[in-house]
Design brief:
27 strands, 530 residues, 2 domains, six-stranded mixed β-sheet, seven-stranded mixed β-sheet, alpha+beta, Purple Acid Phosphatase, chain A, domain 2, globular, 8 helices, Immunoglobulin-like, 30% strand
Amino acid sequence: MKIQRRPFLKWLTASASLTLWGKALATPGDDIRHILPTVTDTAFSISVSVGQPRNALQLSIDGNEVPGTRMDSKGRFWSFQAGGLKSSTRYELQLSDEDGALGQSWPLRTFPDRNAEPETFKLMTYTCAGGGDGVGLPSKQFFKPHIFRQNLFEAGLNEKPDAVIAIGDHIYYDLRGEEHPAIGRTSKWLKYLSGWYFSLRYGSFDRSAPMIGTDNEDVLIRIGDEQIADLYGTRFKSTPIYFLPDDHDYFENDDAEPDIVTFPPDKFSRAAQQAIADLYYPTLPESPGPEWNRAFGTLRYGRLFEASLFDCAGHLTVGDEAKLIPQAAEDWLTSRIKNSPATHYAMVPSHPLGWTAGKWREWYPDVVAPEGFTGVVTNELMSGPQGQMTTAAQKYFWQKGWWEQHQRLLETLAKVRQGSRMIFSGDIHAQGAVEIRKSGELVLEKPITSILVGPVSTSDATWPSAARGIAAAEPGWLATKEVIATREVNGFTIFEFEASTARARLFDCGGYDRSKGEDGRVQNVDDIVI
């Protein structure tokens, strides 16, 4: 990608100036910036932000007052936890401050009792919604504008889902161990100018300081307001949404190179992920323990459907006991696969089973390498085409323990779970569906359907074929049957569950080729029975 220096400088300066000028001239609108709820059969967990700091916020649930817990140092971010609610009940919610009601009231419904037998459940899923609003270079766009993503959200909400799972990468702001992003590893002037732009627009982190109560908090909120609060607003306030993190939510890409290995995350990265989650979205219910409720959790809809959600980045390990999820989480997941009473069960990892894009932190050893090469390959992001996907070459610092854990989980799901079971996931910027039939020496008598649910914000420079030189494909150690062709499109998936059937509809919202002028609305729908 060749960029002329002078036009780029003009664009960079204008973009930063416009951003700062726009903030200065902004007029107050609805003071509620965002509302995101998670529910169970007996509880609500709701995250709220407001434009102006408050000393206190309350949430009325059918007239019963729940005090908010302040999550920031200034009083803009509030969390509400309400338990002891009745199952399958519609409640009316109202925010208020010391001056009275704030905004309009809205409805929110609890899930059916965990022992109930609901007739239907409809679930919306997607991945990779983060990134700055239309951020890019003159010739390449990294992330879709908010209006594209919001049109996609509205298309999904028009299907009237009972719940939503947002799978990973809610934030894109990769630091590579530094204070701010610097795009352009091979160009010193581009790296310098992009670093200057990000520090001017958002500020710079102090990696030795706490996240909350320091200048770090201001930087974090500028990023989070743009990528979460401004994107979501209040459109999901009556639709429960479960946020599962992945690598970028720790402010890093999963890189492994001789000069840097970004995971397991360091103290700063863990603190940044925790702070973003605390400020902007609710915790995950029914996690293996309170300390895990930002990385692992359960969506349970009566006895009709259960999903186990798990983060494959934030707690990975390397070395002799390498795993993508810790042993305690694996034990919890194995227990849920064995003991779930749900008619339909889904395993929802933040990183997919059934595909490879040659990335470092994958279950699989596949890497992009020149034809016939058998040495060690470091597959750097944005390094351009390098050859073909292969298992003959060695992926730098890949851990075989990740594959061994993959085999344990897949075997348990295939052999122990007798009823309806499936896998759906995100991370790899694509959409598609396969049946996993063989994995290494493991032969699945009854294939397992695995679905890539579709990304939301991906644009020119962030498709696998652009970022790594090759599209997502079948791993070399797997044998799969293609159900829906894997394609680089933005989109989402709607699952519909009844007692005797499970169906998935994959909504293609386009966005690969900007010249087509696609705006996030649905272009095509594929329908499969699982």
